[in-house]
Write a structure and sequence with these properties.
CATH architecture of the largest domain: 3-Layer(aba) Sandwich
Helix content: 25-40%
Radius of gyration: 23 Å
Strand order of the largest sheet: 1-4-3-2-5-6-7
Oligomer: single chain
Strand content: 5-15%
Number of strands: 9
Number of domains: 2
Shape: globular
Low-confidence stretches: 12-39, 351-398
Order of helices and strands: EHHEHHEHHEHEEEHHEEHHHHHHHH
Structural class: alpha/beta
């Protein structure tokens, strides 16, 4: 393919004019799209797949994971995070075998969110010079290597991912966002999933869908932004409703569809419904002016934009040009070979491990060597009956009963719970790593 060079996504002209005049305020927040309310139209399970990568998130993770090696190029410049981010993208492509790819990065020159709320991320310490140098170099290097890269003026990689998900949906495609940032949970819907990269690497990370998202967050697809607005986000310096943590927020959202519905009940004479969900103490905390202000601000700032001008999906198609890819990376002493197969239209390098086991004929290649007995790893396994054995006992047909009341949202697993699920998945967790 002829991949686009580094793309600067355009934004709404009215918003650009406000920014140029120094008048960006609440209007900017209103221009952002509430990803939690995005359409949930499902697409065919075999529809083409667009892989949307959060370049900042993966590069941060790669920097901290590989800093001990201090890999530098001939000029002494750090490259371990650059090598790591390409390796993570290649591993994600090997696991998911996408048809197209786009990589988003934060704009470093301006921030619409910071213009509206100066405290946004203001508490973060300065980045280590080696990390800062690689963040500065990454967009141009990946674009030179042929990867489609988008930087949207004033916006973040999350906004690129949201716009990529919308582009895929309009095109009848599926989209998987690859990130370690939980903000992208708000993107999950019938056409969009999230591969949340954890310390176990790509192969040890869950793919979150509308079915599996509640196991991790305790809320349904489309509700995550409301949960985050109530809880707040310390990493972005955004306090929520004081005293309302993720468990209380999840209990509220098991009863109400959105945080707006919660406040509509409180203001509309239906306080008893909120009391029944979370108790008098939580209701008192929700009613404070500070809580209302924080939650409303968080809803605006946490919303992601879905209308950035991205290249047409056909311009994002794989495969990449192997010669171009390796030449650009090699100029920075980043040398990768067989692991790039899914990006460049190659075949899995099965001969490295002495041939593929029987189960691999219809499955993507795992990120590590197959087990000695040839069994499928959990993330590639077949349905529970074949992967972990059929459930014991005879099948019993129960008499018809009235439909039960909706169950409360499941308690989130968290990162440690995900690790335990990876080792010993329950029946309701089999799809987390699929």
């Amino acid at each position: 393919m002829s991949a686009p060079s580094l793309a600067r996504a355009e934004v709404d002209p009215a918003l650009a004019a406000l920014r140029a005049a120094g008048l960006v305020g609440d209007e900017a927040g209103e221009d952002l799209v509430a990803a939690g309310g995005a359409p949930t139209d499902e697409v065919a399970p075999d529809a083409p797949l667009l892989l949307a990568v959060d370049g900042n998130s993966l590069l941060h993770r790669a920097h901290h994971a590989h800093a001990a090696g201090q890999h530098r190029d001939a000029a002494g410049r750090p490259v371990w995070a650059l090598r790591g981010v390409v390796s993570l993208i290649a591993s994600a492509a090997a696991r998911l075998t996408p048809d197209a790819l786009v990589v988003g990065f934060d704009c470093t020159d301006a921030s619409v969110r910071r213009a509206e709320h100066p405290a946004y991320k203001a508490h973060r310490p300065d980045k280590h010079p080696d990390l800062r140098a690689q963040l500065d170099d990454a967009p141009a290097l990946l674009a030179e290597a042929g990867l489609p890269v988008v930087v949207a003026e004033g916006f973040e990689a999350d906004d690129v991912l949201c716009s990529a998900a919308a582009l895929a949906r309009r095109s009848g495609w599926r989209c998987t966002a690859v990130t370690s940032d939980r903000d992208s949970f708000a993107l999950v819907d019938g056409s969009t999933s999230v591969l949340r990269v954890l310390n176990g690497g790509i192969g040890g990370s869950p793919v979150l869908t509308p079915r599996t998202l509640p196991l991790v967050t305790g809320v349904r697809a489309g509700q995550y932004r409301c949960l985050a607005a109530l809880r707040g986000d310390a990493s972005d310096n955004l306090p929520g409703a004081a005293g309302i943590g993720p468990k209380t927020a999840a209990r509220l959202l098991a009863v109400f569809d959105s945080v707006d519905d919660v406040y509509a009940a409180l203001d509309g004479g239906r306080e008893d419904e909120v009391l029944a969900a979370v108790g008098a103490g939580a209701v008192a905390r929700l009613r404070t002016p500070e809580a209302r202000e924080n939650v409303a601000r968080n809803q605006r700032l946490m919303a992601m934009r879905d209308d950035l001008a991205l290249p047409p999906v056909d311009d994002l198609r794989l495969p990449l040009d192997l010669v171009r890819l390796q030449a650009a990376l090699g100029a920075r002493d980043v040398r990768l070979g067989p692991s790039l197969w899914a990006l460049v239209g190659g075949a899995p390098a099965a001969d490295r491990w002495g041939g593929l086991p029987a189960w691999a004929a219809d499955a993507p290649l795992p990120d590590g060597p197959p087990t000695d007995d040839g069994a499928a790893p959990p993330d590639l396994a077949a349905p529970a009956a074949t992967a972990w054995g059929a459930l014991p006992g005879p099948t019993v047909t129960a008499p018809a009963e009235p439909a039960p009341e909706p169950a409360p949202a499941p308690a989130p697993l968290g990162a440690r719970g995900l690790a335990r699920a990876r080792k010993d998945p329950g029946e309701d967790q089999l799809d987390l790593f699929g």
